[in-house]
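Q: What does the assembly look like in three dimensions?
Context provided by user:
Components: two
Sequences:
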Amino acid sequence: MKCEQIGELLPDYLQGNLDEEQNEIVELHTAQCADCRDEVTIWKKLGLLPVEQPSAASRARFEAMLHAYQTGRSDRVSARFGRAGRAAGSNFWQWLRTPVGVVAWSAALLVIGIFAGNYFGDRPTHPIANQDEIAAMHTELTNMRQLVVLSMLQQQSASERLQGVSWSQREAHLDPQVMGALLHTLRFDGSVDVRLAALDALSRHAGQPQVHKGVLDALQEQQSPLVQVALIDLLTEWRDPDAAQRLRNFEQTPNLNPTVKQRAEWAVSKLN
Amino acid sequence: MKEQERTDAENDQAMKLAPDEDLMLEVRNGAGETLGVLFDRYHTPLYNFYSKLTGDRTLSEDLVQEVFLRILKYRQSYQPGTPFRAWIYQIARNARVDHYRKTPKHITFEPEMAPAVMPKDSAQHSEEAELLHRALMQMPEEKREILILSRFQELRYDEIARLLGCELGTVKTRIHRAIQELRQTFRQLESGMINKDKNSGVTKFVPPRRAGNEV
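A: Here is the predicted structure of the complete assembly.
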């Protein structure tokens, strides 16, 4: 048999998937062909590379993350309730009352209105006028979406607020009001999940000075190690010029979680 | 009505033996602490997946944490019946891709390309392992990844095919090509090493670790 054909069998040979007959074919060939034999050797030699052990801090970091996550989810009951509500809300009318439903039917009404206006109105439909209308409609929709985001961020249940944050990411451009709301959420929301999601959403707008300032400020106020670590990581990623100094101050915070402290030290060394 | 009340010592023991999928379903249903058992099972394999792929230990540890954070965040998206191993490796690959999207490689790639820790007594073995490590790191990333998945993570080819979204046959072909390339690079490095050995003790400085770069 040629090396090419053996090559097709080789991967299965190496993982022991071949039947006895095929196995023998490969072994006969490799006994004679130095190149193919060497391929088998290399595969076996890979076993020389040891299994590396992650540092002991890894487990501690995980524990801290889990703990922070669960503490942040003390409002889990309300979040779950929200979720259950949504499942039952497959009921159409109930859905119409949710913020998403509101925007959907408002948009539908708007479209109907414009077409009705065009249809019944006596003014001649001019292509340019039409384009203007579409642009206006677009702005209208954008504004409406922003309204939805703002209203969702005020909701009682964490899962709705989470949804609000994810809605905010649909617009490439961040409206100042929405940005303000996200920054507020990042600082004051009761749920770690929601704060993390807000940070995620804000991280896409690194170009905005307000966002930088908000993230820096949030660092001092956060109590959850999980959010603290996420903030530190983001500041490091941005290579924010003010970050190194702030982080150095932050490291001095009394009773700082050791994992967070370690992360901050790492960040400072990275930023310098 | 809390589920947690059930967890006594007996249940603890049962949990340690339970299949990954059952544990993940518990996590999905809100028992976050069960994730600890999955962490114990997977953090070393995942760490090795990343460290062999990137050669960067700090980054590897960060990515492992990211994987478990994502599991918590997206636990609702875990569908009963999905093999957990496939699911977690999918998350692991995505986490890495997202990381590189955010931080282009040339920035993150500088830290510790530390060679694996080797027992000092088996000098020849450690030299070979060192060369293999370097040969592996010289390969294009997709080839390195497929080798790592099949050789070190011990994923079956059909699992890899599903993970990479390609045909089973393609996986086998790719693995074979990757082995061929690794072999060539390894043998080249080896002959280079022998030549250098004859001239001087240069080999001591070969590890691609950059001085003063420990972060």
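Follow-up: Chain A touches chain B at residues 7-8, 10-12, 15, 17, 38-39, 42-43, 45-46, 48-55, 57-59, 61-63, 65-66, 69-70, 73, 76, 80, 193, 196, 226, 237, 266, 269-270 (CB under 8 Å).
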